[in-house]
Write a structure and sequence with these properties.
Number of strands: 6
Strand content: 15-25%
Protein name: Integral membrane protein
Helix content: 40-55%
Largest sheet: 4 strands, antiparallel
InterPro entries: MT1774/Rv1733c-like (IPR039708)
Organism: Streptomyces cyaneochromogenes
Keywords: Membrane, Transmembrane, Transmembrane helix
Amino acid sequence: MRSQVSGRRRRPNPLRRRSDVMATWTLRAVAVLLVVVAPLIGVAAGWWAHDDARTTAREQRADRRQVRVEVVDGTSEALPTAHGGRQPSAEVTVRWTEPGDGARTAMARVPVGTRAGETVRVWLDSRGRSVAPPADGTAIWQHTVTVGVCATAGAVAVILLGHAVVRHAAMRRRLGEWERDWARIEPDWTRRRA
């Protein structure tokens, strides 16, 4: 039986089995999933992460404020630590004056090398605890891209794992088909009686 495909004639291949056709269509489906669906999942996850990060940054800006404080003890004895690529800092006691509350003290991170009596700017939350500055636009976009890339990679991994499982099952089925066909044809081909 002949069929018309894209303006040219195509003969059916007698060696092509149903499992071969299914493998071809499965491969096409996997290609579409990898090229279209996985990136869409990454974009959707990135979009969600961007909105979430912007909301968090907005809440941080509402809760945090930058205050000029006086360092009570210097950083020479403190062990410096670096946070997220920022300059090394150390936790020391600082003092500042709150309007209506008077003088307050707290532990805050200041740049290493700051001496007692110097004034620096630190970020404090509504309870007067030292906190990191609110996330800026760069941090929000870094978070967005990271989540989007990770979601895309996760989708790709799931798609490829699913394809491997389907391919393994199809191979077992194909080997079973070949085994049955060989059992039927082998006596005629080898001139042996079954």
